[in-house]
Amino acid sequence: MSLPGLLALLALPFVTLAAACGGEAPPAESPHPRQPLTGALRDALGAKAGEAKDAGAPDRPYSGHGAGSVPKEVIAKFAPPPLPEDVSRTFQSMLDVRAPSSGRLSPDGKIMYLTWNVTGSNQLWRLDGPQRFPTQMTGGEDPTILREIAPDGSFLVLSRDRKGEENPGLYLQDAKGGKLTTVSHKPGVQSELQFVSDDGRFIYFRANDVKPNSYVLYRYDRTKNEREVVFDQEGIWAIADYRPLGPKSPDSKLLLQKEVGGDMSEFYEWDTAKKALTPLFGQGEREDYDAAYGAKDGEIIVRTPHLGEFQRLYRWDSAQRKLTPIVPEIPHDVFAFGIDRSKTHIAYSINDNGYTRIKILDARTYKDVTPPAIAKLAGDHVRFGASTRDGRFLALGVDTGKAPQTSYVYDWKTGSLTSWHVPSTPEIDTSKFAMAKLETYPARDGTPIPMFVRRPDPSKCAAHPCPVLVHFHGGPESQELPGFSPVKQAFVDAGFILVDPNVRGSKGYGKKWLHAADGPKRLDVITDIEDVSKYIRANWTEGGKAPKIGVWGGSYGGYSTLIAMTMFAGAYDAGASVVGIGNLLTFLENTAPYRRILRINWYGDPERDREALLKLSPITYVDRVSSPLLVLQGATDPRVPVGEALQIHDVLQRKKVPSQLIVFADEGHGAQKRDNRVLQFGHILRFFTEHLLGSK
């Protein structure tokens, strides 16, 4: 992941997300053998006309995504009910334990701009010096994120979304604050910053306003308030980096990235003066590449696993057209890298079994020049942020696992490391938070599966043995990480052990592990979801009694939850699915068009892999459900359509399985607004307390 991509990721609010997973029916030794196909699967495979539907088939067909895909009265019917006061207070208090993003510095290093959710949604704040009182720059209910600061520091480029639709607009604001000026914001269109020219005149951005599954690259002229097309070949294009053709030239060489699948890219160079496109690397490989121009002409810094098992940093020479490693080979991924505009330093982070470490190279010699002050920073995660354009100042974030992230700034000129703000922990002693401990459990084929475990004090377990909540991450190619989490601590404080597995298909453990679950191959490893419950029941007993186990997650984690409750019915005693996929076919048919292109390599092709997708769909096994299930969904979700939740709920209601559906009318792929986050997590805790402990 390059620096712009990393910053976009770090700017996202915490939500329990994931995507879609699938899996094969358990082998013969499983206590939950395969049952006959339900009507849903039989119909999808092409049942004969006139044949009666089975009880498992959904009655509610749907089309498209977003709030407009279902009637308003349906959304209103499933609005979130109020929480018990004690549960609401718990999460209100925990959401006050927070810190802003690591921030971006003005060119002179005197002002830091931060994304912070103090008002209930992410907004922009300004610090006029270390430990100064913050000034709010933007407001309202729409999440707003800083994307760039003008080269001279005079204006800011902001991104603003509405109701979780993930169709952000692009805006300008004076660096001192004030009204926003629209660069581009259209309904149903994503407008995303690519870069600001060195003279500050041009704003380069991309938008899918011509076709929903293709992006045009534009250049907005601030002096004329006009935009022009820079590049409009069909595809999911982005600008990874740029090199001006001259000090006063309006033209540049653009390093273009074309996404051809999830974590699969090709790179090209586009000469804006000659209108010439030159292929560089990745063409036809379907491999993961991230890249940025290096310090020398004809040089590109590349992060890829192409030549080995793990992500590594390389130098690509345009003359020799080959990759040469610039960092040592280690059994860990280089998770992200960034190079400042002055091409002075290359910062990169290492994913060390889920823990984040950083190193810094000289951009010309590739020698390790990590300052001792940075090397001494300790925690679960030490992350780099943005550099000023001249490379003098570097923002850093440190997560100790015991407190919200603290932001620092390193000054390369003076060698000083300065803390810029103190996180908020009102009325709560975070030193008593449970640290995530790295453990493993065995899959049925003997493969050790990593998991992070947070345990309460044994005297504070909600029951004996202590009940367990297994939380699956999103993606599907994401990775569960240790680190500070007030939300997870709320479940630990309630007396639950919290388990975060990284099943096969997760990032951070090499290429083989990551691609073990691609498409139909997921059938071979989907049992990782059941095996963690089998391990816990067999090994975490007390007095010969196995603990109660709940399962939850969002997006792909929501899908994993649904698989756990359907295909592996009986493995878990209750489940809570947040924006989870119930049917991989209807999901791929109705998700946002650009996402469909980027998801097929993870889940499977709807035509070529149709039967496997159905075998991997929770709806196929919904007749097996016997334990309570909570389903939460955002109405405006462009990734997992609200129809996925409705069709699962229909069948559960018909089967009279204890279940509940909650739909947030003003949220998309997971709750972002503070009040909705309280409701989302509060209802999950309420549900598990009721169904695992027998209390309300």
From TrEMBL:
Chain residue ranges for the region called Disordered: 24-69
Keyword entries, A-Z: Hydrolase, Protease, Serine protease, Signal
Signal peptide (UniProt feature, chain positions): 1-18
Domain Peptidase S9 prolyl oligopeptidase catalytic: 484-692
Superkingdom of origin: Bacteria
Keyword Signal belongs to the record: yes
InterPro entries in the record: 6-blade_b-propeller_TolB-like (IPR011042), AB_hydrolase_fold (IPR029058), Peptidase_S9_cat (IPR001375), WD40 (IPR011659)
Gene3D superfamilies for the chain: alpha/beta hydrolase (3.40.50.1820), TolB, C-terminal domain (2.120.10.30)
Keyword Ribosomal protein set for record: no
Protein name as it appears in the record: Prolyl oligopeptidase family serine peptidase
Species in which this protein is naturally found: Pendulispora albinea
Lineage, opening ranks: Bacteria, Pseudomonadati, Myxococcota, Myxococcia, Myxococcales
